[in-house]
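Quick one:
INPUT:
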């Protein structure tokens, strides 16, 4: 996974990379939070549906599937960057994160408007909102990883160019 790939980056034993230990530690912490937020989403969904509550409306299901697919693609690209120690796609990853964050903000606002209009399906709407919130935290932590690794990578590449 991603944490293993950061360990691979550390094990590359490049002094220029490893002198940024605090940034690498920050990235590992962000990856841990990503994992925890994924677990929290899963646990909340399981508890909700295990108690025989009704499912999401079709449009909400579609939104959540779109978010999942988009997020999987972002994490796949990020994992590939680490696996290959090639970080040239970080800016593209950041653009994808920003685009997904914009979608989530739109869905959050729509959901808040629905909650304000009626109390129907309130529990489902709150669960949906929490999933969106956890997903936004995941995206924020992905940006922590990409931005800290970009700083390390840029310093490493600049050093290589000066030789």
């Amino acid at each position: 996974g991603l944490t293993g790939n950061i360990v691979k980056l550390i094990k590359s034993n490049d002094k220029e990379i490893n002198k940024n230990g605090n940034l690498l530690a920050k990235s590992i912490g962000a990856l841990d939070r990503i994992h925890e937020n994924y677990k929290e989403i899963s646990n909340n969904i399981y508890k909700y549906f295990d108690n025989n509550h009704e499912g999401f409306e079709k449009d909400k299901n579609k939104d959540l599937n779109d978010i999942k697919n988009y997020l999987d693609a972002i994490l796949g690209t990020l994992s590939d960057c680490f696996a290959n120690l090639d970080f040239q796609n970080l800016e593209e990853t950041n653009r994808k994160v920003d685009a997904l964050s914009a979608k989530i903000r739109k869905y959050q606002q729509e959901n808040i408007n629905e909650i304000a209009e009626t109390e129907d399906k309130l529990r489902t709407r709150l669960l949906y909102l929490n999933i969106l919130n956890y997903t936004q935290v995941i995206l924020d932590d992905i940006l922590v990883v990409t931005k800290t690794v970009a700083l390390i990578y840029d310093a490493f590449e600049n050093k290589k160019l000066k030789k």
